[in-house]
Amino acid sequence: MINIYNEEEINIIKESGHITYMCHQHLKKMLRPGVTTKEIDDEAGKFIRSQGGIPSCLGYEGYPANICISINEEVVHGIASDEVTLKEGDIVTLDICTLYKGYHSDSAWSYPVGHINKEKEHLMYHTEKALYTGLKELKAGAKLGNASARIEQYAKRHGLGVVRELVGHGVGHELHEAPDVPNYGKYNTGIELKAGMVIAVEPMLTAGKRYVALLDDDWTIVTEDGHPAAHFEHTVVIREDGYEILTGEWKKLAKEQKIEVEGTVIEVTHEIYKVELDNKIIVTAHVSGKIRIHTIRILPGDRVTVEMSPTDLTHGIIKFRK
Q1: What are the structural domains of the chain?
Q2: Which one of 87, 115, 176, 254 is most buried, by most CB atoms within 10 A?
Q3: What is the pTM of this model?
Q4: Backbone angles phi and psi of 312, in degrees to 5
């Protein structure tokens, strides 16, 4: 059975989702070389409980940690350990789930640790884009397979593997509910979406082949070929005219609270720009639609204005070339 949630229930899920979102904001400040995954997991548990929530992952079917922390070739369900330390050049995925007043929320995000290579930059950038590309297909009356198809098409267009053994899911009363939300499929297939459905959409993509394997701990799933994986996920509610993100819409925050800073382009790779700001911080950016429409070419050495959100000072949009 697929649950349809009323507005009172959706608001509680949104409160749960806000705790999950804020936990991401809190933990990403810890992601530096030398930190153990156990330290990150302990802090996650403390933070969620300090907000009145309970870590949904802890004890779920026997899972032994507060959140899932997966590094590089680990796709999902990595278990925190004192033995595992973050290293320069890693990518680490934090999959955070919160139970609050009887309702769950679920959101995963992949983060760089220091400077990462171009393969990982490409993977992370396009996995995040795949998530928002799929979300655009969600609205009451649409087929769920439309979002799945869009994610798969986007991933393949950018040379990424789409893991088929792992899918998104409904979420609310339970951490995992119907329906399954695959990251592959065909248009006009699957269930018809209805207003009030709450689902977690979560592309899990790889820089190599799509095939995965289960480690001996019976939890951690890794890529078979050892190439890195990335994972981006939001909990959303279906609306009559679209969808609403319940785990912190970072894009919306960026529109509401904008800051503009100046810098110099130092590197361009596959439409991804590295910009050194005047305060010497290096950020990742892409160009605005206006620049793209007018085919304004941006090269290393160009001075640019970058628009950023105060909640994420590592990414931005190039608005102007000087």
Answers
A1: 7-248 (3.90.230.10), 253-321 (2.40.50.140)
A2: 254
A3: 0.79
A4: -145, 95
